[in-house]
Amino acid sequence: MKTFAFVLTLFVLTNFCHAQDNNQHKSSPEEFKEFCEQMEGRWVTQQKVTTVWPKLGFKKGDTLTHYADFHSDLDGIVLVADHKFGNIKWRVTYHYDAVNSRICSSGNGSNGFWSRGFVWRTSKNEFAYRLDGGQTNGQDFSSSGIMATSIDGKTFTTSSGDTRLGDGGKAKSQEIYKRISN
């Protein structure tokens, strides 16, 4: 089942690089370049809402189309991901932090959601992420998971088992995105 938790997870992938990372996951500039190359393009998935997030206007069980447009900017210094899920828009930017040898993300949404985090490679076509963030109402957010791109580059899958908003329980999610253009 597809969930809104993944959409927020991607958004949360837009995190601030200096988020706490007890494992100190490191990345190289080459890994950032490969991450950008794998993610660039326009992607779409159908997601089922499993968590009711503030100001979204969705009900549990709703199925919505999620578009994600990834493109490099500033001469390849950043990867920008513009997301649209129902009536919500958010933007995540990824960059390479050479001081700390990390791929970092930072994101903000039209519903007041924000996130910061980091991304690291776990295998050839797979990157893990850790996000922390919050809402304008003071609720905090956290998530971690995996983003895996297919060998042919036509799909990518995100999966998370611990997306959490405020004092609520942890939600699981898995979404399969299809590339609709480069």
Set down the secondary structure blueprint.
Elements: H1 4-12, H2 29-39, E1 41-48, E2 63-73, E3 78-85, E4 88-97, E5 102-109, E6 114-123, E7 126-134, E8 140-149, E9 155-165, E10 170-181
Antiparallel strand pairs: 1-2, 1-10, 2-3, 3-4, 4-5, 5-6, 6-7, 7-8, 8-9, 9-10
Describe this structure as you would to a colleague.
- The structure is a single chain.
- The chain has helices at residues 4-12, 29-39, and strands at residues 41-48, 63-73, 78-85, 88-97, 102-109, 114-123, 126-134, 140-149, 155-165, 170-181.
- It has a ten-stranded antiparallel beta barrel with strand order 1-2-3-4-5-6-7-8-9-10.
- The chain has 182 residues and is mainly β.
Task: For this entry, give a set of tags.
2 helices, 53% strand, ten-stranded antiparallel barrel, disordered N terminus, 182 residues, mainly beta, 11% helix
Largest sheet: 10 strands, antiparallel, barrel
User: What is the subunit organization of this protein?
Assistant: single chain
Rg over C-alpha atoms, rounded to the nearest angstrom: 15 Å
Q: Which structural category do the helix and sheet elements fall into?
A: mainly beta
In total, the number of strands is 10
Assess the beta-strand content as a share of residues: over 45%
User: Which strands sit side by side, in order, in the main sheet?
Assistant: 1-2-3-4-5-6-7-8-9-10
Average pLDDT level: 81
Shape: globular
Q: Pick out the low-confidence regions.
A: 1-21
Note the total helix count: 2
Helix content: 10-25%
